[in-house]
Amino acid sequence: MTFTLDTRLSDAVGAPAAKKLDRAFGMQTVGEMLTHYPRRYADPAELTPIRDLPIGETVTIVAEVLSSSARGMRNRPGAMTDVIIGDEHGRVSLTFFAKNLDQARWRAGQLYPGRRGMFSGKVGVYQDVTQFAHPQYELFDDEESAKAKAEDQASRPIPIYPATSAVSSGQFRELVEAVLPQIGEVPDPLPEPVRTAEGLLDARTALIQVHRPQTKNEVDPAVRTLRMHEALVLQTALLQQRAAVRALTATPRPASPSGLLERFDATLPYTLTPDQQTVGSQVAVDLTGQWPMNRLVQGEVGSGKTLVALRAMLQVAETGGQSALIAPTEVLAGQHLRSITKMLGPQLAPELMPTLLTGQMSAPQRRKAALQVAAGQALIVVGTHALLGEKTTFAELGLVVVDEQHRFGVEQREALRAKGSSPHALVLTATPIPRTVAMTVFGDLDTSVIRTMPAGRAGIESFVAPLAEHPGWFQRVWERAAEEVAHGRQVFAVCAAIDTTKKSGAVEEDDAALVPAEEGATGPRWGVVQLDEALATHPTVGKLRRAVLHGKMASDEKDAVMQAFARGEIDVLIATTVIEVGVDVPNASTMIVLDADRFGVSQLHQLRGRVGRGSVPGLCLLVTEAEEGTLARERVEAVAATLDGFALAEVDLELRGEGDVLGSTQSGVRSSLRLLRVVKDSKLIARARELAEQILDADPDLIEHVGLREVIARRVTEEDRAALAKN
User: Fold this and answer.
1) For residue 572, which of 534, 622, 623 has the smallest C-alpha distance?
2) Tens of pLDDT along 577-603?
3) Exposed (0-12), middle (13-18) or buried (19+): which is 463, by Cβ within 10 Å?
């Protein structure tokens, strides 16, 4: 029987195996199975004698189990299985952790003395004993099987697959090897002239060589080919999406002489920065086009993105269009409304009637705001997800502005856009995006960058307070905070949790940017509750005016605290990352981040941007207990070393690796990338972009590129396309 990539796994490997693959990996077709690529290969040269194992390297050896035993953990729940394996050259210790003693005994029973197999792991030494960290194994069924596999492994690389407790790497490899010989023709997304010019393999050969290479030299060409497939498919899908947007008809929104925009510009007490002028011109031109604007504006914290957005809203309002600015939090929405109203001034604000609409407003307030929006009186509407409600109706929605897009899901954004007739869209982000990520994730948007900062900013100094080496510095941090308050300034103190004594709900609900703790680390030491209690007894800070702010508080309570802080009535604000974006208090001079190692690079940069926003010099103190040399400590030190958010974005990619680059909201993009790496493969992505543009220019509907059309249809589902459409 010949299989295609669409063949059901139940037909290819049988119902029981197909069910296990579906449960373990969500696979249902042969194509999905064959895009579950090996994560590495055990080369025959890696089957190293135990005495020659290189410390720190990940290796694979053939060995025999010499002993195994199960025991409970001494000081915490759980159990472990201790195993000794060996060959004629030496011994290696393996340790497997289990939830309970029964599980540990089961593994000991599986790894009984005399059993042979392949064992993989990172080589280490503990108390003069060689051991494998995070060991994996594949046992041989019998002596004959062991001999046959050993001979086979001596001649070709062994694929090692991502595995689960239900489906091991060896089991998956056997299923792949049963399916591969029966694969028929495979659609090839690359036109033959391109494939030849780029020195790439045909699609079928690439799949066979990546899963069953005869030599080590066959792996790289296969991987390079499949990476180009992923890049070309993604870039073509993104460009198709851009073309689809441009096929829509939008209402042109030109500015008029002596209109709202011109009147607003005349009242500005300062000159726009060069970048604000450039980006403003790009947006102004987009708004007069025949298709909807779809533009991403990225810029440093405090670079003036909100002003660019407000000028766009004024231009739209000149033709009677309404603008909706959607913010990720109630605090930020309120902040935006006050900021916009203040910038418009007493002459323009009544004409545009900026209106707030959020979920936590009282019913009468919400009804009144909704009526103003529906009647078209409110030409600028600021809100949160409440703008998405079925009851919210716009008279003429002309522009959607999404602030801090990485904190707002694609479904919510699309629901807002659906309320207008092809409205223009402007996405703002203060999280700098490296070019390759922008090309990969936001490839269907036009992008603009604001780098220059407004004049008059006093700047920020950043320091790490490394408590692992200098525990006494914790006291100095709070002395420094008191000194700033004594000079008439204000202080933010940010914690990674609300209450560390509560296991659930302790971390801010909307806080997706918190990074997981490193292996062996505990949760955050400081929550807002704990820090407030500790500072209450501090000899100096305890006498200052303190307040707390976090996501579990009622909307009006949060707003009251922020307004009191903005008026200078609070000296020290103890908060979670609810204040991460958009909060503007020029008199705030100091940002203290507790457990700084629990935050991502971009998030620390965002937090730091809350201070140094006026003529008062900013100070950022990053407090951490992370040990020197750890990845967590490197993140914190990287932020302290530079104020350049674009440089930090590149550092962030290097430190985090590729796994989390695209973010959970980019589901359509993320699911289609298996081998492509946006940093390492930046040149390949750029080349794929060029190829996609050339192909679509000549053949917009891919009539002549059947293979590419089929692969896009298979890999980029309707759900994925919907996700791409909402970026």
Assistant:
1) 534
2) 887 555 678 899 999 999 999 988 888
3) middle
